[in-house]
Amino acid sequence: MGYGMVIDQQLCVGCAACTIACKIENNTPVGFNWCDKITRTSGKFPAVRYEYISTMCNHCDNAPCVAACPTQAMYKDRQTGLTLHDTNKCIGCKACIVSCPYGVISFNWERPHQHWAQRDRLAEGCFSPREMLEESGGEGSPHGNPERGTTYPVVRPAGSVEKCTFCDHRLVKGLAPACVDACPSGARQFGDIDDPNSEVSKLVARHGGKGLREELGTRPRVIYIRDYKPQRRFEPARPAGENQGA
Amino acid sequence: MNFNVSRKDFLTPTWFLIAAGLVAGGAMGLYEMFLGHVFATNSALVWTLPLVTYIFLALMSTGVSLILAYGLIMKDEAITRHTRALLIMAIGMLLGGFTALATELGSLLNMVWILLSPNPSSPIWWMGTLYSIELVLLAVKLVLDLKGRHGVFDLPLAWGTLLIAAAAAITIGAVFGTVIGRPDYQGAFLSVITLVSALVSGAAAIVLLRPQSTLTDTAGRIFRQTALLFAGLLLVRVAYEAHSTVVGMLGWASIWMLVPFILALVLLQYAPRIFAFIGILGVLWVQYSFIITGQLVSLGQTAHWYGAVQSYQPNIPEALILVLGIAVAAALIKLGGQFLMDERPPAT
Predict the structure, then answer these.
(1) Is residue A195 domain-resident?
(2) Once rounded to an integer, what is the mean pLDDT over residues A189-197?
(3) Is the domain defined by B12-339 classed in CATH 3.30.200.20?
(4) Confidence band for A37, pLDDT divided at 50, 70 and 90
(5) Domain count of the fold of chain A
(6) Distance from CA of B224 to the nearest CA of A (A)
(7) Does B118 touch chain A (CB under 8 A)?
(8) A138 or B78: whose pLDDT is higher?
(9) In Å, how far is B41's CA from the nearest CA of chain A?
(10) CATH of the domain at A104
(11) A125 located within any domain
(12) What is the ipTM of this complex?
């Protein structure tokens, strides 16, 4: 058993709904995107090519961040294959950030969401950020998702790194990661990539596909299939009748 | 031990400078740890001048330890006569480095936790463990020396310090060398650079801080030999980077980096302390260059936020952490000189 994600580049429309869903679900601070993007523009007019590659932690089987972490704060969960992080063990050395070849780990230099503690009101009669926080009862920010706190702190402490967990708090409830559910084109598929009969494994078997920077030997669990080609716009990812959901 | 230290011994220009460094750097370190983030860092460029300070001081301490261990093993009296002073120097520099590291990590307790939740696959864990053992060994040697207990333990302790110090210096290089996604870091070369730079800076520090004729001759000889080796290694790196076609490699070595070491090689005998100081600055330049350059190419999504290649200039708070690390080392060396040395240095 090991979770993995398949991203169909032919279906991805670059809307960034995944990024927004991730931010809302995981209460990430300003400037941190666990789910983000790489954009590339290449070629020469009129043969210009633009690529939008949605990125997140690749939950590598051979994770450099796990090998580099001196305190086992970054670890592999043997049951799920996820690369997870324990903020209680994190000493803030940032070795994981330097070691990660994908640039998907962020460091809390300061207490996150601290602007929500401000008492100044923008105008008379308005709520101050602090009052909004108290009114909503949220943790850290009015948007803090308490369900996030079941497996990872809703507000990660200052001096600690943070990263995508494939929404492990949703997985234990049988739900897919927030980015997968938010994708309007069904470009993201999630499941047990170690099971050859799973949807994600079938997609990889059918279309091939590869992870980012595979040449480094990290064995990422996020696989990209089908580079976007306009001429196959109407070609389905799966044979007719196959389940489109995760 | 010397208990005849008066207030007058602290009213010197050197102590005023040290106190100013401790206050300014200490205030900045405490601010960074408890109040707000002031370093010029981001999520793609995380190891900056404060970490360079730690590595610079830790490696210099390692160099002093290695030279002392060499002297004890080879029974070189020019070195062994200064055992206590060299032990104080090594301990002071290592603790100065740990102080800079604490501001970088955000807490002193984080440096203890590293030992309690070990990950043997991590070079940082090995680095922390080896330097902790090194500090204990140095402290044991100092206590034995203060109590005048010399005998069967001297040689095993010297060998232990030699092996641990060499392993620690090599492991610092491995912290960078084992990073697979950054071409300016990856490879065994940085372990060689950190070991040799430890010897160069350690020997230069002895020449600079213990201007005694026989010791200066011996440490100066080691300094010249290791500086020549270091210059050769840098030349190899410059040639490699000039011909490299590795994607994402910026190159951290410059032909100008050879200048301080060639100058020191040729002119050390005329003004040992000046050229030892220039040699130390040269080592700091090299260490700064490889540590920073290795992180300048933004990886993955961070390129979207910070640009494909970042630029970095240390800011004043980071420069003050360098001052803090040096001031802590200087204060401990000076205190050791005043309280623990039988022959007290003149008040300066």
Answers:
(1) yes
(2) 96
(3) no
(4) very high
(5) 1
(6) 34
(7) yes
(8) B78
(9) 9
(10) 3.30.70.20
(11) no
(12) 0.92
